[in-house]
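Please go through the protein record below and see whether the fold suits the sequence. Record follows.
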Amino acid sequence: MQFPGCRDTALRAQAWLPERDPRAIVVISHGLAEHGGRYRELAERLVAERYAAYALDHRGHGRSAGHRANVDRFDYLVSDLGTFIARAQREHPDAQVFLLGHSMGGAIALAAALRYAGNLRGLVLSAPALSAGEALPAFKLLVVRMLSVLAPDTGALTLPAAAISRDPAVVRAYENDPMVHRGPIPARTLAELLQAMKMLQEHAHELRLPVLIQHGTADSLVPMAAVRPTYQRLGSPKTRTMQAYDELFHEVYNEPERERVIADLLSWLAALR
């Protein structure tokens, strides 16, 4: 499916639907440099439990328009996701909506949950990019911000494929996927994401939705230790559930232990229906 996003950017998305009316809708917000199609296995598991799964390709990603991996403005991503949620709701007006975001998509999903809370039943965050920790020293951060304005497409960060999963087949598929951006991440995207992280850290306590957080303890791309302070400010202890998986890497839905992770997700969703 195709629909216009913020500033008329042509966005592409896909859906996996059960044969009968869905119990609920799960909208998926993918991570940096990848695309919604990489969530097919997760979507098929959701469909088997009679959920409708919807995944868009963020601007600059997958089949959507835009300079590769350049999101332009973080706020555009949030607006795009809000439009996509509304589209899914129109398809199934009697179904509740859950929002699931991974990595950068987790940051986008949290921002959308803060903005569109009235349209959602719950939020799932998989290794959300809510803190850079010590990854960027002050000097490099200044350079990234300058390049973001002067030369926004300049490469500023390279993502190591081996860090996404301990499953070699997953890494090979990622490296050979023509819709995965394997070049450096543009300075504009990195600067926008870093600015969004700061905003989300400041507003995390305002979340009014049940939230499930799933994170691998061996994640080197988004280390748990860096994100934990923001986790502890999300909503309240009564509304947040934290599931940490020993030794798992960044993409917990693509690790060898994925069955256990997805089973935990399904149990949490079922408890809220």
Observations:
- The helical segments are 40-48, 74-91, 104-115, 138-150, 168-176, 187-203, 224-231, 258-272.
- DSSP finds eight helices and ten strands in the chain.
